[in-house]
Amino acid sequence: MTDFVETVMAGRARLMCETVIAAPRYSRLGQITGDPGTGKTSVTNWLTEELGAIRIEAWAGMKEKTCLQELAHAFAKAGYPIDESGTSNTLIQRLIRHGTEGKLIIIDEANHLRWPTLEMLRSISDIGGAGLVIAGTDLLAKKFTHPQIRVFLEQFRQRVGTKKVVMQPVQDAGEIAAYVLAPRFGSVTQKSATAFLKKTGGNWRFAVALADACERLMSNEGIEKLDERVVETAAAWMAGGS
Ligand SMILES: Nc1ncnc2c1ncn2[C@@H]1O[C@H](COP(=O)(O)OP(=O)(O)OP(=O)(O)O)[C@@H](O)[C@H]1O
Ligand SMILES: [Mg+2]
Questions:
Q1: Looking at residue 242, what is its pLDDT?
Q2: Bridge partners (DSSP) listed for residue 32
Q3: Is 140 domain-assigned?
Q4: Which of 14, 42, 50 to mutate to test the pocket of ligand 1 (most atoms within 8 A of CB)?
Q5: 197-214: per-residue pLDDT in tens?
Q6: Euclidean distance between CA atoms 213 and 131, whole angstroms
Q7: What is the pLDDT of residues 32-69, one digit of tens each?
Q8: What is the mean pLDDT of residues 65-83?
């Protein structure tokens, strides 16, 4: 398990969340998007700890009421007990009344939610005053033909405005060396870092997997120092699926 690294992207996400909390009511919405493996889930977990946020993770087919129950449960876990029983309406009312004001709610995998659920979350933000950050694939870039959904989408877009962070792959060899390689392998040459960046494309998930493979290879073969040959061989192992 890799400890969370406070990357430049993480700093941006934190700043965006702080802007969401400080924004006027009816515009306390933000969004984190990015390709698979760029660190959305990791950053939302870190933000939750750093900012004392309330985080839930949606799943495919999640129903509105289940989402509200998860939210009430997460509030309780964060030290704000909210009764999970009752209808969806009662739960929304409870969440709005029992102090969501000023709190930050983060929903990971929000792209799994249906529009009525997203609308309900928006009301908790609008009326209750909570900051709401949705993470996942870019909901706001979607095209909808249904007129009602287009209105919902526009309301969401306007509230998010510029409070958006797109998680990018790690861009350069120096960064990948500092973020992924140095914590495991100590200092590495520019050449090794460049080879590592090239093989992973700066994608966090691939980088962690390749670093694991390099470690295994080094341990199997008694190699002490990471070099390009280790990176190339470990990458070839992975490509071969062994
Ligand atoms: N800042 C970071 N510090 C340390 N490890 C990280 C960081 N960001 C990502 N990782 C590692 O990369 C892996 C993939 O990241 P994560 O699951 O957060 O990506 P994701 O964008 O949520 O992907 P998906 O779209 O598939 O859900 C994590 O399991 C974690 O090990
Ligand atoms: Mg994720």
A1: 55
A2: 135, 165
A3: yes
A4: 42
A5: 999 999 999 999 999 999
A6: 40
A7: 999 999 999 999 999 999 999 999 999 999 999 999 99
A8: 94
For the chain, the domain total comes to 2
Which structural domain range is residue 210 located in?
173-239
The residue contributing the CA closest to ligand 1 atom 31 is: 2
What is the distance in A from the centroid of ligand 2 to the CA of 205? 10
* Element housing 133 (H / E): strand 131-135
Give the Cα separation of 117 and 134 in Å (integer): 12
Boundary (domain end) residue, out of 167, 184, 200? 167
**222 C-alpha vs ligand 2 centroid, how far in Å?**
35
- Report d(CA 185, CA 35) in Å as an integer: 27
9, 205, 210, 212, best to mutate for ligand 1 pocket (most atoms within 8 Å of CB): 205
Question: In terms of Cα–Cα distance, which of 98, 164, 103, 173 is closest to 137?
Answer: 164
Q: How far is the CA of 39 from the centre of ligand 2 (A)?
A: 7
Confidence of residue 141 (pLDDT cuts 50, 70, 90): confident
**What type of residue is 177?**
A
Say which CATH number the domain at 137 has: 3.40.50.300
